[in-house]
Amino acid sequence: MVSLLKSFAFLVMAGACGAASGENGIDTPKGCEFDITGTWEAVATRDSPAIGVRYRFGTDGMAVSLTPSGADSSEWVEKPGATVNAYRLDDPGAPSRIEFFAPGASSPRSSQEISQYDDGSFTTMDESSQPHRWLRVDPHRYFVLLVALLGDVAKGGPAFATLIRADSDGRATLDSFGIYIADELPIVGPIPAAVSNKHLVESRLDSETMLRVELTRAEYNRAMAVMRSWDRRARENRMMYDTAYLNSIVFLDQLAQTLNQCNERIQVKKLSWSAREPVMAHNHPQLPFFYVRDLRKDNDSLHLRNEEFRERMGSSCVGTCRSPATTPAPKLSMAQPR
Q1: Which sequence spans correspond to the domains of the chain?
Q2: Burial label, 254 (beta-carbon count in 10 A; 0-12, 13-18, 19+)
Q3: What is the CA radius of gyration of the chain?
Q4: How big is the CA angle at 249 (ends 286 and 277), to the nearest 5 degrees?
Q5: What residues have CB less than 8 Å from 230, skipping those under 6 apart?
Q6: What pTM does this model have?
Q7: 2-137: what fold?
Q8: What mean pLDDT is predicted for residues 309-337?
């Protein structure tokens, strides 16, 4: 066990991927706090082999070793006699060192330098300066879809964000917010499932555009916080502007900006509302369409095409998906693009 702890290489989790060198020499995601709670798996690096173990770090300051459950090697569990250690970070939000203790002990049995961390991984250096890398194990996968339709000159078209959490049981939770058209009027609020479900698959039409990206858990949570704040605005009738398309584009921009809270996750130009800004040259009710279209152009390498999206989603959303705002759960069709 001591040798295993000596090989601990901790890269912590915070807000987005990517890193910048901090004052203490640690590669850290700017503006993000570390969150070690959850399950982590050792992976091989150029300088060290994989350890072949997983650890679950609890909010109670205890770390428990996990092992494969019998024949099903995809499921890791805590078995009787599993190794349990107390752990302590010198700074939980921005750690540079992690210490491990035998339960009840006051002196650490192992102390490891944390050399790098981001949303889904961390790296530690053992006493012999050997680096070891750990990846977060998450039973869910997370996605964001930014969708916009050109619509007509007077009203524009639907433009919204959909956040998806695909569960390990083959189901998924969807939340959508933005602008849609109802009774010939633009409405800003939660998007009806009948609208959002039609746009899970990318269209071939030039009048529709989409940016679809897989997220980390932290990125998903930050984006969800923005969506919930705007949902509350809609429920309380406290929108920032009287004009629907302005609320829509500001919401989309705020959500996209959260992905860059820790580093430049996607290329997104913060709106300045200057008349010289290229997106402002278009018909104003259709601005959300051109905003999303430009986002897609600038981030085409990150965009998940239909087949890749289906593969990453697995069985999720092929049948019935559940949405907190929709009862009963909608039936989602992974139909061919229009």
Answers
A1: 2-137, 141-313
A2: middle
A3: 23
A4: 75
A5: 177, 247, 251, 254
A6: 0.74
A7: Lipocalin (2.40.128)
A8: 53
